[in-house]
Amino acid sequence: AENLPQQAQLAYNTIEVPKGAEFDLILSDGTRVWLNADSKLKYPVTFGNDKREVELEGEGYFKVTKDERKPFRVVVKKQTVEVLGTEFNIKCYSDETALVTTLVNGKVKFDDGINPSVILKPEEQLIFEKENGLSIVRKVNVNYYTSWKENRLSFQEETLDVIMKTLSRWYDVEIVFEDSALKELEFSGNLDKFTGIQDFLSLFELGVNVKFEVKNRTVYIRKGN
User: Fold this and answer.
1) Residue 153 and residue 193: Cα distance in Å, rounded?
2) What sign results for the dihedral spanned by CA atoms 13, 63, 59, 215?
3) Distant-in-sequence, close-in-space partners of 189: CB < 8 Å, separation ≥ 6
4) Counting C-beta atoms within 10 Å of the first and last residue's C-beta, which end of the chain has fewer, N or C?
5) Which letter does DSSP use for residue 40 in this model?
6) What is the Cα 139 distance to its own chain's centre?
7) How far apart, in whole angstroms, are the C-alpha atoms of residue 168 and residue 160?
């Protein structure tokens, strides 16, 4: 990229990862990015002299090359996560109510453009509610939020609604809740990502009054008998 003419250096690439797939790439500064299913990343062919900035839709894990002269910024809609050199995960799907930033190590600054910026420490997670613009910071086990990169799907006391959205993207299936109250059930689980979806569903059925039926590429969720 350094040998390209200036006009080409200002060009942008866009990576779009479909449902049921994943992708990782190395940017021109050496930063490595893992993209989860149903995600999009817009990034320059090579970064300019003053900043490093990319745009994300969906979910990505970033291992940023440190450069104190040029902070690294991930722009999600109108929100920005800025770092110098660190590892963190951002989840920002359009069908979910919150933007979730999980810091593995280093330090990041979150800015929503309205409220005061927030600095995260390692093993902290910031949840930004899109509708009301409120943010909370909590201590978490980061493994539950980054395991997808290591070919695991892990959930800790997560609602069935959020879990099924995750499974829908990875297994490329449609989800139908026949009883909306079931969305609020909470589950924990940890399985290999390349395990069939039926193994996940069977795990969730244990000890809980909920049943899953898979027809073609649609999962129907109803109360058990």
Assistant:
1) 5
2) positive
3) 153, 154, 155, 163, 200, 203, 204
4) C
5) E
6) 18
7) 12
Which DSSP letter does residue 150 get? G
Strand, coil or helix: 121: coil
Q: Cα separation of 130 and 99, whole Å?
A: 7
pLDDT for res 200: 86
pLDDT band at 75 (very low <50, low <70, confident <90, very high): very high
What mean pLDDT do residues 192-202 have? Answer: 90
Cα-Cα-Cα-Cα torsion 42, 48, 50, 51, nearest 10 degrees, comes to 20
* Nearest one of 86, 213, 25, 61 to 151, comparing CA atoms: 61
pLDDT over 80 (residue 2): no
Question: The dihedral of CA 124, 129, 133, 136: what is its sign?
Answer: negative
d(CA 139, CA 2): 41
| Distance of alpha carbon 109 from alpha carbon 131, whole angstroms | 21
Per the listing, tokens 């059925």 go with: 205
Measured CA to CA, the distance from residue 77 to residue 28 in angstroms comes to: 23
175-190 tens-digit pLDDT: 999 999 999 999 988 8
CA nearest to 204, candidates 159, 142, 146, 141? 159
Cα angle 150-130-135, degrees, rounded to a multiple of 5: 80
pLDDT of residue 5: 56
State pLDDT tens for residues 127-157: 999 888 899 999 999 999 999 999 999 998 8
Residues contacting 151, CB < 8 A, separation 6+: 192, 193, 194
